[in-house]
Design goal:
Layout: H1 3-9, H2 14-29, H3 31-42, H4 51-65, H5 74-84, H6 89-106, H7 121-131, H8 136-146, H9 148-159, E1 164-168, H10 170-180, H11 183-186, H12 191-199, E2 206-209, E3 217-222, H13 224-230, E4 238-240, H14 243-252, E5 259-262, H15 269-277, E6 283-288, H16 291-303, E7 310-314, H17 317-326, E8 337-343, H18 358-361, H19 364-382, E9 385-395, H20 404-411, E10 419-421, E11 440-442, H21 444-447, E12 452-459
Parallel strand pairs: 5-6, 5-8, 6-7, 8-9
Antiparallel strand pairs: 1-3, 1-4, 2-3, 9-12, 10-12, 11-12
Helix pairs in contact: 2-4, 3-4, 3-6, 4-5, 4-6, 5-6, 7-8, 8-9, 10-12, 14-15, 17-19
InterPro entries: MeTrfase_RsmB-F_NOP2_cat, MeTrfase_RsmB-F_NOP2_dom, NusB-like_sf, NusB_RsmB_TIM44, RCMT, RsmB/NOL1/NOP2-like_CS, SAM-dependent_MTases_sf
Pfam family, one: NusB
Binding site for S-adenosyl-L-methionine: 264-270, 288, 316, 343
C-alpha cells in the first residue's frame, strides 16, 4: 500500500500529513544533491552509511535547507537517529547536522556546481546530475538528444512543484446538470465549461481551460485538494489526468458507432476519454494483463456513465494477437477494429515531475528491454486494425528509443508493411505539438504538460476517416 494511503488511515492532522508528504516527496526528488552535501560534511560517502542513517540525514538536511527549519528542529532528527539506528548513532547525526546548520547560516554549504571535472558529456552530465538531482546516465542522454540549454530547462522543470489538470467527463456532467436543473443554463457547453462552473463554486480553487484541449481539460492552479474533497472525482464528474494523455486520444480521433480497442488500457484514463467521445454509440474493448486494474477501470466507467459501451478483458495482447491470427474467431477477432490505441509500457521519463521516484528506479538497460517489449506489442496490436483503420502508438517517455525509433522499426518489419505513418489532418491537433515527421511530442519545459509521444499509423486498404 502506498505510504500516503497508510498515513491517511491514521488520525493525523491535515497539517502534519501535508508536512510528511512534503518531506517524502522532497527528499525523493533531491536525494542525489542531499547525498553530495552529506558526503562533503561527513567526510565519507553516503553509500558507506547505514540506510537508516542516510535517511535521517537526508530528512534533516532537506528540512533545514529546503523548508527553512530552524537549527533547533534538528534535535528531532538526532533523536530519530538514536531510536531508528542505535543510541550511539545520535552523536554522528548531531555532528553532521550541526555542521550543516553552521555552514548554511554562513552561506557556505558545499555547492555541487563547483565540482571539478572536464568538459565531456559524461563530466557535464555528472555535474548537472548532482546539482539538479538526476542520474548521470539520464542527463547524458538528454544532453545528446536535446542540447545543454534544453536539458537544463528540463531538469529545472522536473524539480519544480508539479501542476495538475482535470479531465471533464461530459456524459456525467450533463446528467448532473440535468439533475440540478442547470441543463438549460449550460446548453451546448463543453464538458470543460460544465466542470469549470462547478469548480468556481469551490473555495480556494483556481482553474482555467486547458490551452491545448480546452473542451475536455481544465488546469488547476490551486486548490486541488479542495476539488478532491468536494466529491467531483468520486462521483465520476472529472478525473485527475494530464493533458498529454488527452493528446493521444485526440490523435486517435474516435467517432460514434466505431469499434475501438485500447490494447494496454489500465488505468483507463485514455479509455474513458475515448469512450466519452463516442457519445454512447459503438464499442470500446479495454484489454490489459492486470485483472485488478481492469476492475478499477470498469468501476470508473460505470461511475462516469460509460459502462454500456466499455467492456474489459484481462489478457496478454501478444497472446490475443497470436490467437486472432490463428483463427478468425480467436480472442478479439483479427482486423476488426476501426481504431486501436497502444499506450505502451515505457520508462516514464516524461512524468518525472510527478513521479520523482522513477528517476532512481530506471536504468539504461531497462530502456533497451522496454524497446523490445514495445516492438512486440506494436506487432501484436497491428493484428486488430482493419483495412483503412488507425493504430495510434503512444508513450509517456521522451526517449527517442521508445518513441520515433519504435515507429520506424515497426514500419520496417513485415507486421508494419501495410501501415503508413500519417500526419494528423489539419485542425485536429493544437499548435506546437506536431513535429516535422507528423508525430505528436510534448516536453514538460516547453509545453507545460507531461512529456509524451504519439504516432498515427494508417493501415492501407479501404478509405478511413
Amino acid at each position: 500500500m502506498p505510504l500516503f494511503a497508510i498515513l491517511n488511515q491514521f488520525q493525523i492532522l491535515k497539517r502534519d500529513l501535508r508536512f510528511a508528504k512534503e518531506l517524502v516527496s522532497g527528499v525523493t526528488r533531491w536525494r542525489r544533491r542531499l547525498d553530495y552535501v552529506i558526503s562533503e560534511l561527513a567526510g565519507r560517502t553516503t553509500e558507506s552509511l547505514e540506510p537508516e542513517m542516510r535517511q535521517v540525514l537526508r530528512l534533516g538536511l532537506y528540512e533545514l535547507t529546503q523548508m527553512g527549519a530552524p537549527s533547533h528542529a534538528l534535535n528531532e532528527h538526532v533523536e530519530l537517529a538514536k531510536a531508528w539506528v542505535r543510541p550511539a548513532a545520535a552523536g554522528f547525526a548531531n555532528g553532521v547536522l550541526r555542521e550543516a546548520a553552521r555552514r548554511a547560516e554562513a552561506g557556505k554549504l558545499p555547492d555541487p556546481a563547483a565540482m571539478a571535472g572536464g568538459s565531456s558529456v559524461r563530466d557535464r552530465a555528472r555535474r548537472l546530475g548532482v546539482v539538479h538531482s538526476h542520474p548521470t546516465w539520464l542527463v547524458a542522454r538528454w544532453l545528446r538528444a536535446l542540447g545543454e540549454e534544453s536539458t537544463l530547462s528540463l531538469l529545472v522543470c522536473n524539480n519544480a512543484r508539479p501542476s495538475y489538470s482535470l479531465r471533464a467527463n461530459g456524459a456525467a456532467l450533463a446528467a448532473a446538470d440535468e439533475e440540478d436543473g442547470a441543463a438549460d443554463e449550460q446548453g451546448a457547453a463543453t464538458p470543460a465549461a460544465r466542470l469549470l462552473r462547478r469548480l468556481r463554486a469551490l473555495e480556494g480553487v483556481e482553474a482555467t481551460p486547458s490551452p491545448l484541449l480546452p473542451s475536455d481539460f481544465v488546469r488547476v492552479a490551486s486548490g486541488l485538494q479542495s476539488v478532491l474533497r468536494s466529491g467531483l472525482v468520486a462521483r465520476g464528474l472529472c478525473a485527475v489526468q494530464d493533458e498529454s494523455t488527452g493528446l493521444a486520444v485526440q490523435l486517435l480521433d474516435p467517432r460514434p458507432g466505431e469499434r475501438l480497442l485500447d490494447a494496454c488500457a489500465a488505468p483507463g484514463n485514455k479509455t474513458l476519454l475515448a469512450a466519452g467521445r463516442m457519445l454512447g454509440q459503438g464499442r470500446v474493448v479495454a484489454l490489459d494483463v492486470s485483472a485488478g486494474r481492469l476492475q478499477a477501470l470498469r468501476n470508473a466507467a460505470e461511475a462516469q456513465g460509460l459502462g454500456a459501451i466499455v467492456t474489459t478483458r484481462a489478457a496478454d495482447l501478444r497472446q490475443e494477437a497470436a490467437a486472432a491470427r490463428a483463427a478468425a474467431d480467436g480472442g478479439a477477432a483479427a482486423a476488426s477494429f476501426d481504431r486501436v490505441l497502444l499506450d505502451a509500457p515505457c520508462s516514464g521519463t516524461g512524468v518525472l515531475a510527478k513521479r520523482a521516484d522513477l528517476r532512481w528506479r530506471r536504468t539504461a538497460d531497462q530502456i533497451t528491454q522496454l524497446s523490445t517489449l514495445q516492438d512486440d506489442l506494436l506487432n501484436a496490436a497491428s493484428a486488430f486494425v482493419k483495412p483503412g483503420g488507425l493504430l495510434v502508438y503512444s508513450t509517456c517517455s521522451i526517449e527517442v528509443d521508445e518513441c520515433s525509433d519504435r515507429v520506424r522499426a515497426f514500419l520496417g518489419r513485415p507486421e508494419g508493411g501495410e501501415f503508413d505513418l500519417e500526419a494528423p489532418p489539419p485542425g485536429l491537433m493544437p499548435e506546437g505539438v506536431v513535429g516535422p515527421d507528423g508525430c505528436v511530442a510534448t516536453l514538460p519545459h516547453q509545453h507545460g504538460v507531461d512529456g509524451a509521444f504519439a504516432a498515427r499509423l494508417r493501415r492501407r486498404g479501404a478509405a478511413g476517416a
